[in-house]
Amino acid sequence: MIGLIVKIFVCPITVMIASLLFANVYYAHVIQPIVVGLLLAFSGHMMEVIILKKSTLWLSAILDFVAATLIVYFVSLLFGTALVTFTGALLTALLLTFTEVIQHGWLINSGRTVKSPT
């Protein structure tokens, strides 16, 4: 659960930073990157719950990158005043994946990814 709380703050902030850093990521209103970031946070958390464990750190990072690229690109298309190219979505996903790898390492090292036997 702590992973979700961290993501709720980190993902929107990262998308906002991407819109400031990259010329091909533009959101006309501040709510737009927040919505994209929250969708990324919830989808990323669900992927963590299902996939993340000590042996799947890099698999999880790759899947996060692919999912983040698609979510940033296609959700941004829903906003009439946003402009995010596919290259911009890739760069944003790269930035997000960097934050995810750090967070995944912390979650694994703190034992928060241990699944109980069913």
Structure description:
With 118 residues, this protein is mainly alpha-helical. It has one domain. It has helices at residues 2-21, 31-51, 57-77, 86-109; strands spanning 25-26, 83-84. A two-stranded antiparallel ribbon has the order 1-2. Helix 1 (2-21) runs antiparallel to helix 4 (86-109), helix 2 (31-51) runs antiparallel to helix 3 (57-77) and helix 3 (57-77) runs antiparallel to helix 4. The relative contact order is 0.19. The mean pLDDT is 91.
Portion of residues in beta strands equals: under 5%
Residue stretches low in confidence (pLDDT < 50, at least 5 long) are none
Largest sheet: 2 strands, antiparallel
- From the N-terminal CA to the C-terminal CA, the straight-line distance is 19 Å
Count of alpha and pi helical runs: 4
Instruction: Determine the fraction of residues in helical runs and give it as a percent range.
Output: over 70%
Structural class: mainly alpha
Q: Enumerate the strands of the largest sheet in spatial order, edge to edge or round the barrel.
A: 1-2
Q: Report the strand count.
A: 2
Estimated radius of gyration: 14 Å
Mean pLDDT: 91
- Give the topology string: H per helix, E per strand: HEHHEH
Q: Can you tell me the overall shape?
A: elongated
Q: How is the quaternary structure best described?
A: single chain
Number of domains: 1
